[in-house]
Amino acid sequence: MKKILALLCALCMLFALTACGQSAAPAASAPAADKTFTVGVCQLVQHPALDAATQGFVETLKAKLGDKVTITVLNGAGEQASCATIASQFVSDGVDLIMANATPALIACSSATSTIPVLGTSITEYGAAFELDKWEGRSIALNVSGTSDLAPLDGQAEIIQELFPDAKTVGILFCSAEANSKFQVDTITPILEGMGFKVVPHAFADSNDVAAVTAAACGESDVLYIPTDNTAASCAEAINNVAQPAGIPIVCGEENLCAGCGVATLSISYYDLGCATGEMAAKILSEGADVSTMAIQYAPQFTKEFNADLCAALGITVPDGYTAIGG
To answer: What is residue 315's predicted lDDT score, i.e. its pLDDT?
Structure first.
């Protein structure tokens, strides 16, 4: 009997030790605070607005996570196919999060994965980018959210009316291949028409026909409007080389485009927009925030700006309340 009791005691001790070992196992894994993360940034093309957004994102995320995060920034050279290749590489590498800078980059990255969190920035309108008939302003898919660079289009129209009250025809110059640009054209057109302007859209397919379409637009317009448009931004010099000699002023959708070919804009800070995207990324990575529940964020403030050199060249007097770009 004593032998049986001893055997039972030994078995009980063995089970107790096994149970203790099992309950201790989760504590052995690294806590969230000690984790390291990898982040991939896919930027459509190099130009000042997108560069500023990427800079704000990287600096904010580094400030939040320090050496716990490794960030790789790759550029698609203006091609969505290149962005798709970059996105596939990030997925293959198993990054923890992808930041997509500009709409074609976002489409490529969201198409590459349904599980890795994807944050967009410099996206004008997410519903238009994803061709959604109904959009409630939150995450586009279970793994997609981000920030928008859309400044109020009624405010852009008010600048045109304020600076050029005697204008009759407003030509809108945009790239037909960019869904966000088409959305802006469709949105601002009835606003301008309500102000009494005749509105004529002038679409170019790509950079190859920018100069020809700009020349046609200048011949039919008193003033041009260019929305936030990546192709136009990369061709600002070519646009200005046509519009300035023709004496046709351009109001632009954002600051960096305006610096290249415009006279005025209602603009945001793309650096601040990138910072806001970095804040979202930090919450996802270090705090476990669910990207699918994160609302799209917008720039907190807008500034009426003017291009002093181009206004002087075209003899345009800008009223009080405008800030000189770079001033």
So the answer is: 97
